[in-house]
Amino acid sequence: MLTASLVLIAALFAAGNVAAKSTKEISPYPLGERSVFSDRAIEDRIKPVGSVCVEGEECGTAAPAGEEVASGPRSGDAVYNASCAACHATGAAGAPKTGDKAAWAPRIAQGNATLVKHAIDGLNAMPPKGMCMTCSDDEIKAAVEYMVSESK
Ligand code: HEC
């Protein structure tokens, strides 16, 4: 009888010990944030693996270096400077130089539609889209219009 009560007391004691565990020992998170379905746990799972740190700035606030996100079509002179000037500013590969009125007069006489078509499809040593494969047709058209306006 005595042994039985001792065992019972010991068992109660042990049970009490578990219940007495502070919640901090079970999980470092407050009650609402413990579940694997909590916002805290979900954010933890999907957060980026790394963050970019720039000296003098708080970690993770700097945007990672990368291609700038295009915000709408580029202007004619921007496309020209990036993709066309290499040949058309210097006359490389026999390209008609921008501003060379004599070289451009007979080309301009073909009409804008033809010039734009040749710029998009290519013409002899003129590569399609001036090799700007990310340029839209409208951006190429704007670049042609810029070149033409500079060469009249
Ligand atoms: C690799 C050099 C090169 C690059 C880059 C280049 N061009 Fe040209 N372009 C040429 C050459 C060469 C010609 C002359 C082709 C011919 O008449 O045989 C030409 C001709 C043209 C013509 C005249 C076409 C015609 O019908 O007479 C236009 C318009 C033109 N280029 C627009 C552009 C534009 C716009 C870009 C940039 C998006 C560009 N080019 C980039 C070499 C280049």
From TrEMBL:
One of its GO terms (molecular function) is electron transfer activity. The keyword Hydrolase does not apply. Residues 71-151 form the Cytochrome c domain. Residues 1-20 form the signal peptide. Keywords: Electron transport, Heme, Iron, Metal-binding, Signal, Transport. Pfam families: Cytochrome_CBB3 (PF13442). The keyword Electron transport applies. Transmembrane segments: none annotated. InterPro entries: Cyt_c-like_dom, Cyt_c-like_dom_sf, Cyt_CIE. This is Cytochrome c5. It comes from Alcanivorax nanhaiticus.
